[in-house]
Amino acid sequence: MKAIGTAASIKNFLDRKNVQLSGKRYGIDALSAMAQGLFASLLTGTIIGTLGEQAGIGVLVTVGNFAKSATGASMAVAIGCALKSPFLVLFSLIAVGQAANSLGGSGGPLAVYFVAIIAAEAGKLVSKETKIDIIVTPMVTIIVGVLVALSCAPVIGAAASYTGTAIMWATELQPFLMGIAVSVITGMILTLPISSAAICAALGLTGLAGGAALAGCCAQMVGFAVMSFRENRFGGLFAQGIGTSMLQMANIVRNPRIWIPPTVAAAITGPLATCVFQLRMDGPAVASGMGTCGLVGQIGVYTGWVSGVADGRRAAINAFDWVSLLLISFVLPAILTPLIAAPLRKKRWIAEGDLKLDL
User: Fold this and answer.
1) DSSP result, 45-59
2) How far are the Cα atoms of 174, 203, 268 from residue 31, in angstroms, in the given order?
3) What is the C-alpha R_g of the chain?
4) Nearest by Cα to 206 from 28, 46, 348, 1
5) Domain ranges of the chain
6) Could you tell me which residues come within 8 angstroms of residue 4 by beta carbon, excluding any fewer than 6 positions away?
7) Fewer CB near the last or first residue (10 Å), C or N of the chain?
8) From residue 64, how far is each of 48, 50, 51, 59, 258 by CA, in Å?
9) The pLDDT value given to residue 229
10) Contact, 352 vs 268, CB < 8 A?
């Protein structure tokens, strides 16, 4: 009876502190928030810096560098927001995020993800429990976060980096099979309520593998947008095509067969990207998982081209590059997905209204 009472007391305390040991909160909410933190720092900074370099405006390059330098802090605070942390915990996560991102190396985003969750929950547990909250809460959050970062971030970062490197190496070695696998999996993750951008960033997924990931995300977004045009018209076209295919998740739950056409399209465009067009994502890894969302994926490819020209890895940006990007990102998904869907509609696997969005 005493054990039951203790368990109930602990549960009540955790509920009062809004500490929920939830797969949704940690695996979906926190990961999605981390991706937004990445967008608001690393990705935006890269775009601003590229614009500055191309236009010869030095101050924009400086602005971009400052934005990129805040990546760790931005991710940690975003995660803290997703976990509904009090203000003092949020502000303290700035130091924690910077430490974890720095110690995690190329796998810094994944290190920030784990470390920020632990630090945020630790800070929430002590928040407003003492009369000197303004001292205790930041101290606990920062000390716990930085100690965890010192002990775990290098290992987490190295594991993420090795995993990403292995995927990229395998894609270079077997571009056809890995082109299919990376494209299909990343595209499906993008449509699920999980952040494909955060996962690509955490693994540092660039190069040919990044190009395959981009192809899969575009196949889902543009595919669903065009396939559902008869139900959703132009509002749905833009909401899914440059917004997110995640809008179809409720419809997928009701009829999983509607997911077949864009997924098969991804299985086609992925190996085309790796084997035929040699489409590479040499920009930020986070852009690999963005598809056509705000055209971030395409901007990421372009920034990779620019950096390649600048450091001598490529001679110039040519017409074939642009044609490849347009075909993989927009044209092929828009053509293939409705064609694949046509026989499914004829067999009534996909019925009228199955793709309707509540816009």
Assistant:
1) HHHHHHHHHHHT-HH
2) 30, 13, 28
3) 22
4) 46
5) 2-153, 174-346
6) none
7) N
8) 5, 8, 9, 9, 41
9) 94
10) no
Question: Residue 1: pLDDT band by 50, 70, 90 thresholds?
Answer: very low
pLDDT at 90 over 50: yes
Interval 253-268 mean pLDDT: 96
CA atoms within 13 A on the CB side of 71: 31
Q: In this predicted structure, which of 53-57, 260-264, 318-322, 330-334 has the lowest mean pLDDT?
A: 53-57
Residue where the block lists tokens 């056509």 = 292
219 and 266 in contact (C-beta within 8 Å)?
Answer: yes
Closest CA to 227 of 69, 337, 62: 337
Numbers of helices and strands, H then E, in the chain: 18, 0
Position 22: which residue type? S
> Could you read off the pLDDT of 162-212 as tens digits, one per residue?
999 999 999 999 999 999 999 999 999 999 877 788 889 889 999 999 999
Element (H, E) at 65: helix 58-69
Q: Is residue 359 predicted with pLDDT exceeding 70?
A: no
Residue 218: other Cβ atoms inside 10 A: 33
> Which residues fall within 8 angstroms of residue 138, CB to CB, at 6 or more apart?
88, 91, 92, 123
pLDDT in tens, 9-50: 888 888 888 888 888 888 888 988 888 888 888 888 888 888
Residue 38 backbone dihedrals phi, psi, to 5 degrees: -65, -40
Give 207's strand partners. Answer: 281
Tokens 């290992």, residue located:
155
Closest CA to 38 of 158, 175, 204: 204
